[in-house]
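seq as requested:
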Amino acid sequence: MHFITVTKAIATLLLASNALAAPAPVATTPEEISSILSPAGVIEARDQQLIDVWEDKNFLGVKLTDSGVVGECKDFPKKFQTILSSGKAKPGFRCTVWPKKNCGGAESLSFDSTGRKAFTDAVNDKAKSFKCQKV
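struct tokens:
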């Protein structure tokens, strides 16, 4: 009787370990594959660091590194929306900042990873939102 109980326990453990070792499902349809791949065929993170912005000109003062989804507009955190004066896109990106939320406003300012040491009057101390694209 004790032998049967031990045998059942071992069988249960073996089944459980096989279930844990089972491979994850594989994307097989074109739609499944394209949902996880970029146009270049590389898996990308949805939310990633895109931009560094500073309170003062010449990349000085309080610094904010902000994340977002490539190609989507994002508002800066409220406490930064009236103090930003310089910025750089992360390598491989080009970012645009706007003086209004939701990437609004008649004027904007774009820059790459070399950055802008001084924002133009249109966005200096007014930048409220940004959007970044791959270059």
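The chain is about 20% helix and 30% strand.
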